[in-house]
Write a structure and sequence with these properties.
The complex is a heterodimer of chains A (226) and B (132). With 226 residues, chain A is an alpha+beta fold. Chain A is built from 7 helices and 11 strands.
């Protein structure tokens, strides 16, 4: 702390005040700087695509997006890429009879839902990885019990194989049938944040309250993006 | 008559004296087990999760059905359950690796912490309930 040492001499005090002003200014600038640069990374593969625009060669970056999907929600309504177009959303993978991490994930998702309730730019998609047991009727009841309105936070089911592929390739989440595991499945407890262009922008641990706090901050950042 | 009353009073007090005291060591052990085996669903504060996982805290079911608790912990639960006027239907998984002593500690912790009971079940009575 050199500033403290300066305090003993009067003429250096002036210098001291100047330096304090300098430090405060630079800190403020740095703070401004970091908030304007507060953007989230875009996850996944990217390819450079060369295009001719007005006779000039322009290199455009094409980012990986969530692949085509078509699933049914708890009200038997089709949910696909069109449903999420222009919205940000959080995806997760669970099954209702899960004895391990799902209850905690659902508790955390309730917090996300409570915070963004009524915001028509935000969706939450919980995918069941056990479509044999988790029927639409059961998902309907589950949604009710969690307090979901069924429109903003939806519970989706589909055929096992394409759904597992969607989890892995679209959301970098794992879903595997394993009879040795409690409940019969291995799956990741991630909350996957997807932007308005269906690009994955973050993966958070859905069983960790601090990680989910971070997710909610990042969702606000994404909402401000064009 | 007086003798009878005296006898009743004496028996009554004796019964009170015989009631097992709260064994805090047992309760503390139960708390550790609760955090490992139960808190994931029922939560550390015993409030459960929405209408998916029933609460233990102030749950009328606990003291009304205390004789069932040891077996529910060991074998889990398949059927619907009615707690504080709400029906829950989530299956509860079994905990068949817990010993009789561990289940005694758990039941004692749950009753003491969430049902505010000080009349806790003894190891022998839990054993009997488990073998019923």
């Amino acid at each position: 702390m050199p500033i403290l040492a300066y305090k003993t001499k009067n003429n250096t005090m002036k210098l001291n005040i100047k330096s304090v002003v300098f430090i405060v200014t630079s800190c403020t600038l740095a703070a401004c700087n970091s908030s304007t640069q507060n953007t989230l990374p875009i996850l996944g593969n990217r390819v450079a695509e060369e295009k001719m625009i007005d006779g000039k060669l322009v290199v455009d970056t094409i980012y990986q997006t969530v692949p085509k999907f078509s699933l049914l929600n708890q009200d038997s309504v089709v949910v696909n890429n069109e449903t999420v177009r222009g919205k940000i959303y959080v995806a997760d993978f669970f099954f209702t009879s899960c004895p391990t991490i799902c209850p905690v994930m659902k508790k955390e998702m309730i917090r996300v839902y409570e915070k963004f309730k009524g915001n028509n730019q935000v969706l939450m998609l919980s995918h069941t990885i056990d479509p044999d047991y988790d029927t639409i009727q059961l998902l309907r009841d589950y949604a009710d019990r969690l307090g979901s309105d069924g429109k903003q936070w939806m519970f989706l089911c589909g055929e096992r194989k394409p759904l597992y592929e969607l989890a892995e390739k679209g959301y970098y989440a794992s879903a595997v049938v394993d009879s040795t595991e409690p409940g019969g499945f291995i799956h990741s407890g991630g909350f996957i944040l997807v932007d308005k262009q269906q690009r994955v922008r973050g993966i958070y641990d859905g069983t960790s309250a601090t990680d989910v706090d971070k997710l909610m901050v990042d969702m606000d950042v994404l909402l401000k993006e064009q | 008559m007086r003798v009878v009353i005296t006898l009743i009073v004496v028996v009554f007090f004796a019964a009170c004296m015989e009631a097992p005291n709260v064994n805090m060591q047992q309760v503390a052990h139960g708390q550790q087990l609760y955090e490992i085996h139960c808190a994931n669903c029922h939560q550390l504060d015993g409030k459960g999760i929405a209408r998916i996982i029933p609460p233990l805290l102030n749950a009328d079911y606990i003291l009304k059905n205390r004789n069932l608790l040891p077996k529910i912990i060991r074998n889990g639960m398949q059927q619907r359950i009615f707690i504080n006027r709400i029906i829950y239907q989530q299956k509860m998984p079994n905990n068949n690796k817990l010993t009789d002593a561990e289940i005694t500690a758990l039941v004692n912790f749950v009753e003491f912490r969430f049902a505010k009971s000080t009349q806790l079940l003894s190891a022998d009575s839990v054993k009997n309930l488990l073998n019923k």
